[in-house]
Design goal:
- It is built from six helices and no strands.
- About 75% of the residues lie in helices and about 0% in strands.
- Helix 3 packs parallel to helix 6.
- It has about 160 residues and is mainly α.
- The chain has three domains: about 80 residues, NADH-ubiquinone/plastoquinone oxidoreductase chain 6, subunit NuoJ (Four Helix Bundle (Hemerythrin (Met), subunit A), Up-down Bundle), CATH 1.20.120.1200; about 40 residues; about 40 residues.
- The chain starts with a helix and ends with a helix.
- The radius of gyration is 20 Å and the shape is globular.
Amino acid sequence: MLHQVLFIIFGVVCVAGALNLLLQRHPINSALSLIVVMGALALLFLLLGAEFVAAVQVIVYAGAVMVLFVFVIMLLNAGVEEHTRGSRVAIFLGIPGLIAFFIFMCWAIGSNGSALGQARIGSFYVPTQELGIALFREFLLPFEVTSVLILIAIMGAVVLARRER
């Protein structure tokens, strides 16, 4: 019972942080709201028994990636953003797409994934050691390419933010 209450509380915190992320006018406040979302997601993973994923969520996403986001925002000296009314394409395609996605997700959850030919969530177990071996043996190249792309993004942000003297 306590796990369900905590799950609901952290879920509400996650959704509230995501809404705050969208409603903020200043990019730094949005980035801080995203850190709240990442922390709440880590706690949700912890409640679901995925301790490794929760630790990775905190270390990689809430830690490294969000520090990178805040660093780039501060480096670019981004001010308050301007809100527009939105485009007609987003209204005519986005709203029906959102409704269709919601209906599909309700159907997929209601059918327990059996209609999709998938196993139920939580029905498999992969030890952390095997996950690490797969990450650093089979998927080493994509892992390293991702780190190089992040490094290139940081260098690009520095070049864009550099002021001519």
